[in-house]
């Protein structure tokens, strides 16, 4: 689930749509054998229990819907919030169901799960899964025993997190305390699993990624009024902010020297507005580049809701939640910014994980 106020902005429209119909996940067929492709976690509707996992096969160019249910039986997941692969497993964070779901990435058969209060996002370090929770902690789960080993106190309502070397960087939002947001990134020593410090950045932090040069990039969603969204770079050698880009940034993904940015600027003040932009930052020179979509395909998007870059090919995937009630879409773009293909998904696609067997 996106930052809480963002979700409220779409809730009215989504509620109107879902009052007419509450789409269930597609009836599962036989689970495919996963070889090389892309997992999509469809967030589903709030309290609709229709979150699901799709698998897009690169070789067949087919999107297989609701594959976890095909392998294990029907699910009632409420609000899928993150998905990642680690080793031979795929991990799905289901926020409103208070679950971390684990499955064999090739067969999709269940490999267990863990109950975590309001889990948000996940990262990995030396056999440990690290999961942020809205209870202001990071949970440490052993991936071998699938048990919670410890928790780490961080900032308020932590969101995304990223590992750089032996340190963990956590974006704290304070989203449940609107309008009194948090404004810090927690730095955690992964050798001791303790918080080292907090870096003051900006209000309502959300996405955070690391580049190959040792910097992390973190987005501030602002306060949906006077304080606008922004992007910052932090030098992980010094843990000091090295650049304030002064550009609106919401969802981000990095590949090579390119940081891809999608920002939808919502205003809670009259006149109400919603404006989406697509930008690129060169992380080597730290300069802003042009729109990364070069063929005008961005005009086809209805509700951009997620972005990821294939770590091998560099292809860019953008999720479109459309009306947040019916089927969504995913668009794939090459490094030249031209659309290669698109496909239909479950309800509100938002999160991606790449896998190659």
Automatic annotation (TrEMBL):
Signal peptide: none annotated. It comes from the Bacteria. Gene3D superfamilies: YVTN repeat-like/Quinoprotein amine dehydrogenase (2.130.10.10). It holds the Pfam family DUF5074. SMART domains: PQQ (SM00564). InterPro entries: DUF5074, Host-pathogen_enzymatic-act, PQQ_b-propeller_rpt, Quinoprotein_ADH-like_sf, WD40/YVTN_repeat-like_dom_sf. PANTHER family: DIHYDRO-HEME D1 DEHYDROGENASE (PTHR47197:SF3), PROTEIN NIRF (PTHR47197). This is YncE family protein.
